[in-house]
Amino acid sequence: MAHKTLAEMKAKLMQGDEFRAAYEAEVRKERLQELLAEWRSHAGLNSADVAARMGIAPSTLSRMEKNITSASVENLSRYARACGVNTATLFFS
């Protein structure tokens, strides 16, 4: 039996609808987490600063960042505003 490369294994798994959907959801989650970290870094803020600007506890912000795919559009907009991101650019750029 020949060994398969990781790319070959991934390609085979991606043929399944359930795996592909789960994989794509994880990619979206990671991209959104990276975007929030980029906003925070660009604004020169730490997570406690963002939480204070949003009027929430740092632990609440941490949960939101970890479970980002369940965050509401309103909370994402509040996060953006806390980091100085124009929320209009979120929807119209």
From TrEMBL:
<dbReference type="GO" id="GO:0003677">
    <property type="term" value="F:DNA binding"/>
</dbReference>
<feature type="domain" description="HTH cro/C1-type">
    <location>
        <begin position="36"/>
        <end position="90"/>
    </location>
</feature>
<protein>
    <submittedName>
        <fullName>Transcriptional regulator</fullName>
    </submittedName>
</protein>
<dbReference type="InterPro" id="IPR001387">
    <property type="entry name" value="Cro/C1-type_HTH"/>
</dbReference>
<dbReference type="InterPro" id="IPR010982">
    <property type="entry name" value="Lambda_DNA-bd_dom_sf"/>
</dbReference>
<dbReference type="Pfam" id="PF01381">
    <property type="entry name" value="HTH_3"/>
</dbReference>
<keyword id="KW-0614">Plasmid</keyword>
